[in-house]
């Protein structure tokens, strides 16, 4: 019984350990300070200190666990052991780029430190320097997915009247959404439907 408990504990903690090691490897020789009065960021990496003004930032993205996407879509995801991990992808005009994880400072779950900060939500928020997916604004509404009828409407806009009537007249051969789309497109072309 004890071995089962130990095994379960190890298996459930492996993702958190892997992320922690990923963050540690990236930030082991890094320190940073946010100076709110002078609006600058001081970053020391491998013993070299650099100072940046907030106006020099060209990209600011918070990478957080998928649990924090609840703030946008109210989906009710449950927190996991890896939910509180996250990092700040910060890029400056001179080309310098840093990945500052929350093992340095736990600030990621508060209001963003820089205006126009975008968010990227991932199930497993390890530092991925090759991530090219678009981040979103936190107050931006997620794009609504098209319904099947809307998809058919887009497809059918190029069909002529005869093709649309073929779909409407043979309802049993087509999906209900396809027939609705054909009727809609035909109606918008100002042609009567029988």
What does this structure look like?
- The chain has 194 residues and is of the alpha+beta class.
- Helix 4 packs antiparallel against helix 5 (176-188).
- The model has no long low-confidence stretch (mean pLDDT 84).
- Helices cover 31% and strands 23% of the residues.
- The protein starts with a helix and ends in a 6-residue tail after the last helix.
Q: Which structural class matches the secondary elements?
A: alpha+beta
Main sheet specs: 4 strands, mixed
Unreliable segments of 5+ consecutive residues: none
Order of strands, widest sheet: 6-5-4-7
Transmembrane segments: 6-24
InterPro entries: PH_40 (IPR058916)
Protein name: PH domain-containing protein
Pfam families: PH_40
In short:
This protein is of the alpha+beta class and 194 residues long.
Topology:
Blueprint: H1 2-27, E1 30-35, E2 40-45, E3 48-53, E4 57-65, H2 70-73, E5 86-92, E6 97-101, E7 118-122, H3 148-156, H4 161-169, H5 176-188
Parallel strand pairs: 4-7
Antiparallel strand pairs: 1-2, 2-3, 4-5, 5-6
Helix pairs in contact: 3-5, 4-5
Which characteristics define this entry?
194 residues; alpha+beta; three-stranded antiparallel β-sheet; 7 strands; transmembrane helix; PH domain-containing protein; membrane; PH_40; transmembrane
């Amino acid at each position: 019984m004890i071995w089962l408990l130990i095994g379960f504990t190890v298996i459930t903690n492996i993702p958190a350990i892997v992320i922690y090691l990923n963050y540690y490897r990236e930030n082991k020789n890094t320190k940073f300070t946010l100076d709110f009065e002078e609006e600058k960021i001081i970053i020391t990496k491998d013993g070299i200190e650099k100072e940046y003004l907030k106006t020099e930032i060209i990209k600011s993205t918070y990478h957080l666990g998928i649990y924090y996407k609840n703030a946008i879509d109210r989906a009710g995801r449950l927190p996991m052991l890896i939910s509180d991990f996250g990092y700040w992808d910060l890029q400056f005009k001179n080309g310098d780029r840093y990945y500052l994880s929350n093992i340095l400072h736990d600030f990621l779950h508060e209001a963003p430190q820089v205006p126009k900060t975008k968010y990227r939500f991932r199930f497993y928020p390890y530092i991925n320097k090759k991530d090219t997916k678009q981040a979103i604004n936190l107050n931006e509404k997620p794009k609504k997915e098209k319904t099947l009828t809307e998809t058919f409407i887009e497809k059918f806009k190029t069909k002529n009247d005869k093709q649309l009537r073929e779909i409407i007249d043979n309802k049993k051969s087509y999906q209900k959404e396809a027939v609705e789309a054909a009727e809609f497109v035909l109606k918008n072309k100002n042609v009567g439907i029988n």
